[in-house]
User: Which sequence fits this backbone?
């Protein structure tokens, strides 16, 4: 594996939090290690697509301390693997641990792409579009899709109202932000004990605006067995 000093950074790094166990999947192994019909694991399919993007010069994986499966990944000894770091209690802890492992090489304005280890259907063209469009933004941006269903809101009294779906988007990954801003945002979330569900929420909580880049609806997150069937369909 290459050391940090050997890397010629082109300022784009990938972080993949992969310490989850996927309780809803009811599988004997974490869902990121389930096999797809193309004989790749879910996590390896994710890495395959992302590492085809030339601008990504290196990546960090955050794993559970009990993980014994990633060493069997075809990417375990990949030349772009910079570090394997400890996964945290929550996703954002894992991302922050990964950012800390990049302290020696990443500059404040370098770009970090964070991708879920269970979104195997992400398209290379969408990743490249995110990089091209978000790189022109001072903070960064995320892949997302427009909400197509009618959304209802129920208040504490049981009153139902309809939310204007034209203003709503479903967040996906990768999410791409400046190293310095993202690290500050996650440090702030932990300091305030905010339970954030993605990186963009932490960024927004610091008062930054982000860019929405419309991606493909096939970029699904696998949480249940039916999602695995759908992912195999999309990958065909």
Assistant:
């Amino acid at each position: 594996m290459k050391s940090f000093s050997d890397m010629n950074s082109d300022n784009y790094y990938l972080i993949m939090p992969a310490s989850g166990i996927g309780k809803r999947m009811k599988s004997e192994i974490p869902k990121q290690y389930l096999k797809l019909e193309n004989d790749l694991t879910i996590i390896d399919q994710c890495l395959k697509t992302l590492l085809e993007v030339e601008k990504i010069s290196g990546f960090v994986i955050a794993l559970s301390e009990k993980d014994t499966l990633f060493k069997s990944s075809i990417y375990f000894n990949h030349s772009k693997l910079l570090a394997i770091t400890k996964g945290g209690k929550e996703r954002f802890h894992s991302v922050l641990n990964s950012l800390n492992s990049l302290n020696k090489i990443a500059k404040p304005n370098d770009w970090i792409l964070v991708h879920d280890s269970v979104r195997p259907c992400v398209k290379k063209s969408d990743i490249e579009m995110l990089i091209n469009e978000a790189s022109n933004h001072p903070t960064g941006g995320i892949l997302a899709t427009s909400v197509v269903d009618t959304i209802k809101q129920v208040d504490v009294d049981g009153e139902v109202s309809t939310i204007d779906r034209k203003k709503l988007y479903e967040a996906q990954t990768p999410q791409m932000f400046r190293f310095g801003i993202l690290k500050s945002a996650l440090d702030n979330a932990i300091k305030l004990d905010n339970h954030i569900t993605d990186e963009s929420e932490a960024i927004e909580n610091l008062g930054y605006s982000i860019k929405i880049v419309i991606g493909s609806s096939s970029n699904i997150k696998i949480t249940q067995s039916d999602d695995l069937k759908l992912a195999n369909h999309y990958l065909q």
